[in-house]
């Protein structure tokens, strides 16, 4: 899809000094890029040369260089200013991040000349120091209004809540926001404080308004649902450009809402909420028309599919190939075969039994089955891609499991296992990454029940038999070190685990070894281990 560029202005705008003069602002935006510097295939994994040649790849930084340069030229020639925003989670997701951390992302974001970026939860995956190093490299502000980093030695004095961009003689205020559960799902440390997002954004709106800024955009990494709540709660916002939930908005097959989604605002005006899926597949394009008083009078736009119709920029491609060279040998190593695609779709793996969840949990349990471990629990949010049929490369495995988590084993009472499953089921409606994919155990979820009472019929496998879990018995459990430390809300693992060992092998290596041992070709399947009532 390509946005129809509307270059005509209203009749009133043709007359200088008219009280009804209109100004236009184009907002190009990305979110949840997740280190997809190279192009992706239909499974959101790194695209290979053959698929690229067939014209079946999407995204990648080189396509964005081409498309954004084209749009800037067209819009600026039409006298219509444009800004480029990112709603967070540039970090984590491919071997480019594993190898270069934030350096590669910074280089290509600078080349694209972003105007501002919100802090995403994954920007903290390697601690505040890695985020601070990234902020030192980029040529634009990285912002979040609801993070107090004043006590952190790395981020103190660097992380601000908002910024002002000047375009066409107009001042545009951009206010950042970051999901409040970042301390549970990432690693910001104890000195980075997350504050109420509504009150924090309200305070920055007031501050910008007092400075005479009449055009204010919230740039948030909080999710589609929360963005709609913010639009309804915070007066003075002209639009919300969001991320975090990887929501496809528009007319595409997997859309979860319209682009833009219009929300009745706190001050009686409708506020457009937008997001552009994830993994570099789309470039968001929102057009706002303002009157003399900074009031939005018209909202238009649609996401642009970054498919083969967009030719990658050759200079950027050459640089990407240069950076990819040191990791190509590892990435291209074939470790297994699969007879069919393995579904790791985010929507499925965060709400129900999914093929990738079964595979990863089975691989974890198989690795430690001789250590008295009978239950595997993996967080659905840790599964980041699907795998297509045929040869499976180590690069694909790392794309599925990019976090360098290690296996963690421990003992847990049956009642605590149930509590862990309840935690996993507590955010189904939000697509929470804590959803529990399992092996050696099966259970039923009632999504309509209150969180904390959604799980029933928990059964544990004993050989070829299944028996009801005993709340007073002790069970051996395998998970990953992130969850064992309380990540994704699994506090019960951090507080109640006994005889814990958090330093097992890398989860990606465990998966690769398991796949290699599954005969001539692994056959993905669902077997009913999770029932949705």
How would you describe the overall organization of this protein?
The chain is of the alpha/beta class and 533 residues long. The chain folds into two domains: 27-322, Purple Acid Phosphatase, chain A, domain 2; 334-532, 5'-nucleotidase,  domain 2, CATH 3.90.780. The chain is built from 16 helices and 26 strands. The strands form six sheets. Strands 1, 2, 3, 4, 13, 14 and 15 form a seven-stranded mixed β-sheet that branches. A hairpin with a 5-residue loop joins strand 13 and strand 14. Helix 12 (394-400) crosses helix 16 (507-516). The longest helix has 18 residues, at 314-331. It is globular.
Question: What count of helical segments does DSSP give?
Answer: 16
Mean pLDDT reading: 93
* Structural class estimated from helices and strands: alpha/beta
CATH topology category name of the largest domain? Purple Acid Phosphatase, chain A, domain 2
Strand content: 15-25%
| Radius of gyration computed on alpha carbons | 24 Å
Task: Please give the largest β-sheet.
Answer: 7 strands, mixed
What is the second-level CATH architecture of the largest domain?
4-Layer Sandwich
Helical amount: 25-40%
Domains counted in the coordinates: how many?
2
Report how far the terminal alpha carbons are from each other.
38 Å
CATH classification class of the largest domain: Alpha Beta
For the secondary structure, the number of strands is: 26
| Unreliable residue stretches | 1-19
Looking at CATH, the homologous superfamily of the largest domain is: Metallo-dependent phosphatases
Shape estimate: globular
